[in-house]
Amino acid sequence: MPIATVNPATGETLKTYDALGEEEIERRLAIADAAYRSHRTTTFAERALRMNRAADLLDEDQQDIARVMTTEMGKPIKQARAEAAKCAKAMRWYAEHAEGLLADEEPAERDVKDSGASWALVRYRPLGPVLAVMPWNFPMWQVVRFAAPALMAGNVGLLKHASNVPQTALYLEDLLRRAGFAEGCFQTLLIGSGAVERVLRDPRVKAATLTGSEPAGRSVAAIAGDEVKKTVLELGGSDPFIVMPSAELDRAAEVAVTARVQNNGQSCIAAKRFIVHTDVFDAFAERFAAGMAALKVGDPMEEETDIGPLSTEQGRAGLEELVEDAVGAGAQVLCGGERPDRPGWFYPPTVLAGITPRMRIHQEEAFGPVATLYRVADLDEAVAVANDTPFGLSSNVWTHNGVELDRFVQDLEAGGVYVNGMTASHPAFPFGGVKRSGYGRELSEHGIREFCNITTVWHGA
Ligand code: NAP
C-alpha cells in the first residue's frame, strides 16, 4: 500500500511519501534507544508537564488537525474535532494519574515476613522503545491511547501508522516534540507493513502493540513470539446490541443508530449485530431502520453530515461483498444496500434482517454502516447468538430486568458489557477484548502497566 493521503470523498491523491530506507530506519532506532536512556530517568512531574503541554497544543490545533483527519480518512468533521478533544483529555488524565498508578506497592506485612524479608516492594519500571502499529479509523485516538501512558511510564514510542494517514502520523510526532518531549521519545516511522518485521526484530525494540485486523495482529504476534517480546493486540469486533422487552425502545433504537454508524460505521466497538427479543422485534426494527434511513450521507467536511465515505476503496468493496453474500442467501434489506452513483467511496446506512449462520456477515466483521438484525425467543437464545462469533470486544445490553442483567454480565464473552447505553472508551476504564478481538488492555491502570517491567525488590532480614 503506498504511503499517501488520498481523499476518500473524491478519490483524489493529495500527497505521497517515500517510505524510509534501511539507513534512516537504523538512525531512528538508534535515536529511540538513546532517548529511552534519558527519558526513563525523568520524573513523573517532568513528563506530566510535557503531556499537559501537548494537550494544550492539541486543543489549539483542534480545527486544523480535524480537517487533516477528515481529509485523510473521511470521518465527519464534527467527529474529528471530538476525537482530538478526547485525545487531549486522555493526555491530561495520564499526566495527572500516572504517578499514582505506577507508585511502588508494598505487599502485606505478614507476606513480607513469611518470605523472610525485612522489607519488599513492587516497582513498575519502563521497558524501553515500544513499536505501535496502528489503524486509520481513529487516526489520532488509537495512537494517543498508547502514547500517553507509554511516555508517562518512561517508555518511548515508535509509530508505524496506517499508510493512508501519514499527515496525522507526522502531526503527532511534531506535537509531542513541540510539547517538550526530547527527540526520539516519540517517532513516526513512515514504513509499509513489510518493514514491521525488521523493526520488531531489532533488539532495541522491547515490545509491540497493534490495533488493526486479525491477519495483521496474527503476523505481528508471531514475530514478537519468535523474539519473545510482549504484545498487546486490539483487533476486530462484531459487538452485539441486545434489546429485551423491558428496554425503552425509542431510546434503544436511537442509540442503536449512533452505535452502528459512528465513524462511518468503521469502529471496532461499533455495535454490529442487533439481537432483539421477539416481543419487541418488529417495533424496534421499524424505528431502527427509519433512523438509519434518515441519516445524511455526504461531504464529511460539512457540519450536518452524519456519514462520510468509507476510508478506502477496498474497504467498500469488502463491505459490498458481505452484503451481496447475505442477500444472495436470503437476507432482507430493510434500508440501503446499494452504493450511490457519485465519486468517492460512499456506502449508505444499511439494515439486513433474516441473518443465518451460514452467511459470511454472521461470522465476519462488517466494517461500514451495515447492521444485521436477529430475532430471538428468550434470554438463552440472546446470549447464545451474542456469543456465536469469533470476536469478543464489547457488548451492549438493553434491559431493566435484574435477572437478565446478571446473566449478561456473567455470560457474554466480551471485554465490556455496556448496559442501557453504547460502548465508549474512557481513560479510566480498561479497554480490550477476548477471543479473536485480541488480548491485553489499554487505558486505565491496566493499560499503563502493560508495558512495564513489574519488578520485585526483596531485602533480606
Ligand atoms: P489493518 O489492515 O490490519 O492495518 C492496521 C495496521 O497494521 C496498519 O498500520 C497496517 O499498515 C498494519 N499492517 C497490516 N498488515 C500488516 C502485517 N501483515 N504486518 C504488520 N503490519 C501490518 O487494519 P485496518 O484496516 O487499518 O483497521 C481496521 C481493523 O482494525 C478492523 O478490524 C477494526 O475492528 C480494527 N480495530 C480494532 C480496534 C480495537 O481497539 N480493538 C480499534 C480500531 C480498529 P498498512 O496501512 O501499511 O497496511
CATH class category of the largest domain: Alpha Beta
Mean pLDDT: 98
Number of helices: 15
Number of strands: 19
List the bound ligands. NADP nicotinamide-adenine-dinucleotide phosphate
The end-to-end span amounts to 60 Å
User: Low-confidence runs (pLDDT<50, min 5 residues)?
Assistant: none
- Lateral arrangement of strands in the main beta sheet: 11-12-13-10-9-15-16
| Main sheet: strands, sense, barrel | 7 strands, mixed
CATH superfamily of the largest domain: Aldehyde Dehydrogenase, Chain A, domain 1
What number of structural domains do the residues give? Answer: 2
Family: Belongs to the aldehyde dehydrogenase family.
Domain Aldehyde dehydrogenase: 3-457
Keywords: NADP, Oxidoreductase
InterPro entries: Ald_DH/histidinol_DH, Ald_DH_C, Ald_DH_CS_CYS, Ald_DH_N, Aldehyde_DH_dom, ALDH_GabD1-like, GABD/Sad-like
